[in-house]
Design goal:
Blueprint: H1 3-20, H2 22-30, H3 34-44, H4 60-68, H5 70-79, H6 83-86, H7 88-94, H8 96-99, H9 106-117, H10 121-124, E1 125-134, E2 138-145, E3 150-156, H11 160-181, H12 190-204, H13 207-220, E4 227-228, E5 241-245, E6 250-251, H14 255-260, H15 265-283, E7 285-287, E8 295-297, E9 303-305, E10 311-313, H16 316-331, H17 334-343, H18 353-368, H19 377-390, H20 397-416, H21 422-437, H22 440-456, H23 461-475, H24 481-508
Parallel strand pairs: 4-9
Antiparallel strand pairs: 1-2, 2-3, 3-5, 6-8, 7-10, 8-9
Helix pairs in contact: 1-3, 1-4, 1-11, 2-4, 4-5, 11-12, 15-20, 15-21, 16-17, 16-21, 17-18, 18-19, 22-24
Length: about 500
Amino acid sequence: MRGPHNLLRLVRTGATLERTGAAQEIFDAMDAPPLVRGAVRILGWPFQWLGYRGNPSEPPTVRALTALGPAYIKFGQIFSTRPDIVGTDLANQLRVLQDKLPAFEVQTAKASIAQELGQPVEEIFSEFSDPIAAASIAQVHQARLKTGEKVAVKVLRPGIEKAFRTDIDAFYFAASMIELLSPSSRRLRPTDVIGHFEGVVLGELDLRLESASASEFGANTAKDAGFSVPSIAWDFSARRVMTQTWVEGQPLGDNHALDAAGHDRVELSERVLQLFLRHALRDGYFHGDMHQGNLKVAPNGDIVAFDFGIMGYIDEYTRKVYAEILFGFIRRDYQRVAEVHFEAGYVPADRDVNEFARALRAVGEPIFGMDASQISMGALLSYLFEVTERFGMETRTELILLQRTMVVVEGVARSLNPQINIWQVAKPVVEEYIRLNVGPRAALRDLARTVEVITRYGPRLPGIVEVALLRQVQLDPEPPKASLWTYLTWAAIGGGAGCALTLAALWFL
């Protein structure tokens, strides 16, 4: 990392926020504490002349984030879904960062397509429009294939890879400085968090990966009622170009258009939240960027998802842990929530589980006492952060994207229906997952899978045991007889137990 260059980048960030007036607007909207205001002011105010001027016709925060570049725009996109955090006015201003950023020239897009696909645009498409949407990484054109099929063509921005690399280097530098100057922050693993962010972003910069993600996501969700994913035109997709089926519909963020089209916004708000939870828990593979700019409502009422550059994956064990935590909060069973944290190793074993349960109760009870419009998953995660800090819980990088996306989806749902009760809507999905995946039947199913794996490796087991014994003999040519007999005894016991469990599994299943 280039220290001086990255330090300059961070100073320029503060200077841009000051110069454009965005710092004051953000601080006021989020009611930032004096310490934070002072730190940014110290970094930015004396060096305002180093800040980017941006487009004076834009609102201050939009102007600053757009000038700073794509990585900063990503943060703005997240906050655009959270009027409960930044206020309705600022959230509405930030909506333009989702898909209404300045576009690049259509001729530049055509040249990029021709280079990627190896033939001129005119030979592939009978029609090709000016940009219809432009975001931080790419822009979209409406086109028509020679076959007559209407498609959407996504093209990466020129030089986007270098722009992101610059910002990510600066973020790494900031994370390392935080860890150096604040040892207590190391439990939050800021460098690992930036590493996770880097991996997510780099996946967005290769549209072949996004095409594959869209295809897999579409296959997983093919039977989900009220949800669809456009299909990919593989012959016309490459690293910097992605072509997919065109879908008509209203943007999920345009309430007036949704109302005019006769869609039920209350039902849509509940469905979008339940779909996200179902994808995350059932499949372990979910859309990681579900803001309004990436969602549309088709004429038949289906919610259609776009932009699969950021996808999240969580393994089966982590899904069970997360579901049990959510289920515990829904049932207000704080003792079980605490036990799950300890069983998963999220909280150090030397802490008191009962004290942790009481701390969780202090988090949960005030939230359940709120009006439905005030109940917030974002607030819960914020309070949990404070509690887990006291109990030495480290940041779980595998859950960062899941938690961030949950907060974004909540914001989308609340923009459709401010009175939505997040817990009530989530309850049936979480309960269904718990019923199917936690308990005796699920344990037997897991056992059957284990037996299946052992069966596949069955012919190799004698050889594995022989190699292990030979290694033991080489390390200790004359081991005590009891040692070998003990080893064989435990092997026999293990084999017998395995056979018994196998028979039990076959009997019950």
